[in-house]
Amino acid sequence: MMNLFLQDAQEGAELLTDVEPVEKTLSIIELITSGGTAGMIIMTILFVLLIVATYIYFERLFAIKAASKIDANFMNQIKDHVSNGKIDSAQVLCAQVNSPVSRLISKGISRIGKPLEDINTAIENAGRLEIYGLEKNVSVLATISGAAPMIGFLGTVIGMILSIFEIANSGGQIDIKLLADGLYTAMTTTVGGLIVGIIAYITYNHLVVKTDKVVYQMEANSLEFLDHLNEPI
């Protein structure tokens, strides 16, 4: 009898050792959908903001790169035309290049014959318009970089409220599934908001640096043009 009992116990132990623990995995989609309706709404908003930020970044990046491209010999040709009195040829060259620098120089050329101060003022006004065009929609990235983490934090607050609500109305029997949904909402929206905010912040600063380089290029070429006009004939 004792041997039979020991044999059954041994067989039971072998069956337990044969059962391997099941490792639970959680995909990104499951992580998002596990947050409940509130979490999915917040994550959808963050996803839309991410798409908008990505579009603005690449659209502005390509526009700024195109604006920074200019022939190294451009200013030498402009100075030769102006020195020889070929104002029309200089304007045609500016139109062919069609860049922020060429448009500034074209504005200055159109004012040749007037006081140098008037030419400088016209170039500065045109420069402000060019800078405004280069910075188009870039401020939206700055807004997203600040708003996305706050939206994620809003999801965190909503998730915690849902969890506390379930605890308060559990009547001593907490529904772990509903409680977990609130916690998922709290955690996933925070992570999502931070990710979108970080991406928007990095892309915004990168565009600012690129824009500053174009602005410096505009200032340098404008100064070179004004110095040429100020040279004694």
From TrEMBL:
The chain crosses the membrane at residues 38-58, 138-162, 182-204. It is found in: Cell membrane; Membrane. Its main location: membrane. It comes from the Bacteria. One of its GO terms (biological process) is protein import. Residues 98-219 form the MotA/TolQ/ExbB proton channel domain. Keywords: Cell membrane, Membrane, Protein transport, Transmembrane, Transmembrane helix, Transport. It holds the Pfam family MotA_ExbB. GO terms for cellular component: plasma membrane. InterPro entries: ExbB/TolQ_transport, MotA_ExbB_proton_chnl. It is a multi-pass membrane protein. Belongs to the exbB/tolQ family. This is Biopolymer transporter ExbB. It comes from Bizionia arctica. The lineage of its organism: Bacteria, Pseudomonadati, Bacteroidota, Flavobacteriia, Flavobacteriales.
